[in-house]
Design brief:
405 residues, alpha/beta, six-stranded mixed sheet
Length: 405
């Protein structure tokens, strides 16, 4: 029977097995990040006259303490790196330094199949690939040609004796045809099945599908998302991660037991960074998943999430952006004021209300005593000295089945 998270103070008191277990077994922690956008004001905000160039380190550095605890942190790059002139919506091209900011903060892998992949046509796809190659950033989703895809896909991530295949697909490319000979992975069940079978031939332990799908600004998964998730889970792809709606959608997890196989469905991670400011769109989440390998078999052991909010602020007439981890910055009582504080609290409350009702076995990862309390990394019997807020995890008892009804 799948577990349901209980209140944090009980949760930490009864964490008796994870640390000892991980000492004996191989383990990998995966973190997944939503849409990395590059709207016009973001590009202008990343330019610094003193260096006469672009720098994104300040945008992402606040999430480094979280991401550095992942073995692999994967983000959706929803722009091209097509070079100047740099532009935002509707056909994005961001400075190469955007990638530097992401990797400096702890992002290890990028997925590149999304509805903006073809914004700058063939040259944009090719230059994006070249930039990622030169920076040594692994990626999945878009390729120079069929031969490139055949040799580089699926992307294999390996650590601690655990091999994972990363697949990536998009529902479309905004009506712009994919230019020959480049390849962008489009959602197609026959293609997904073939890619899964190929991945299994490579002796992987798990397969992840990072999907660009769903309806923009809808906080509930669409019927297509539900059907595709069921298809992939039944196929054997146990970890399904979603992006594109630019708002958060629910997260579901079941964990491997003697009678149940573990599965993950994260329908939408929302915006990691963007200039979108309407309600629900000015933030997102980092999903964290722990996989353990015992006696040659892997199991999904645990899962949690961290909310992030995009702080947009003005410095000498220029808008700047920072991605703030919610659980940490809500404890910094003097950091945000006025309308910024109201927007931050609105996003926080909206997100928690959604997840407390709809999430299943996906609890918020806490921040206490200047550290992130990643459940599977806590020492045996760890109890925070002070708990300022206990979230009502006992309300997370509703399993919304993956059905198309």
């Amino acid at each position: 029977m799948a577990r349901v998270f209980i209140p944090l103070f009980f949760f930490f008191c009864f964490l008796n097995g994870f640390s000892q277990e991980n000492e004996k077994n191989q383990s990998v922690t995966l973190m997944f990040i939503g849409d990395v956008m590059g709207h016009g004001p973001q590009i202008r905000g990343a330019y610094y006259e003193d260096i006469e160039g672009y720098c994104y380190n300040d945008v992402f550095s606040r999430t480094t303490p979280i991401l550095e605890q992942a073995d692999f942190a994967v983000a959706n790059l929803e722009v091209t790196l097509a070079g100047a002139p740099f532009k935002g919506y509707p056909q994005f091209s961001s400075p190469d330094e955007l990638v530097d900011g992401l990797t400096s903060s702890g992002v290890d892998v990028l997925v590149t199949a999304n509805n903006h992949t073809v914004d700058r046509y063939k040259s944009g796809i090719l230059r994006t690939i070249d930039v990622l190659h030169k920076r040594g950033v692994p990626f999945a989703g878009a390729y120079k040609d069929t031969q490139h895809r055949d040799t580089a896909y699926p992307l294999i991530l390996e650590k601690n004796g655990i091999r994972i295949a990363l697949l990536n697909y998009t529902y479309g490319t905004n009506g712009i045809p994919v230019p020959s000979p480049t390849v962008v992975n489009l959602i197609d069940t026959a293609l997904i099945r073939a890619d899964y079978n190929h991945a299994m031939e490579l002796n992987v332990d798990e397969v992840i599908a990072f999907m660009h799908w769903g309806l923009e600004y809808k906080r509930t998964p669409s019927v297509k998302q539900l059907k595709l998730t069921r298809f992939m889970h039944n196929l054997g792809i146990r970890l399904v991660i979603g992006s594109h709606p630019h708002v958060l959608q629910r997260m579901e997890a079941s964990f491997d037991t003697d009678t149940t196989d573990g599965r993950i469905a994260v329908f939408s991670l929302g915006n990691y960074v963007s200039n979108q400011r309407p309600r629900y769109r000015n933030g997102g989440a980092i999903a964290a998943i722990n996989i353990v390998k015992e006696d040659g078999e892997t199991r999904i052991a645990d899962a949690g999430y961290v909310l992030v909010w995009v702080h947009k602020f003005n410095v000498d007439g220029t808008w700047r952006y920072r991605v703030l981890p919610v659980s940490e910055y809500e404890q910094k009582h003097d950091y945000l004021t006025g309308n910024d504080l109201k927007l931050f609290q609105q996003f926080t409350n909206d997100s928690r209300k959604l997840f407390e009702v709809e999430n299943y076995n996906f609890a918020e990862i806490g921040y206490r005593n200047n550290q992130w309390l990643i459940p599977w990394d806590l020492p045996k019997g760890y109890i925070p000295n002070k708990i300022e807020r206990i979230l009502p995890w006992e309300k997370v008892t509703k399993l919304v089945e993956l059905s198309a009804e």
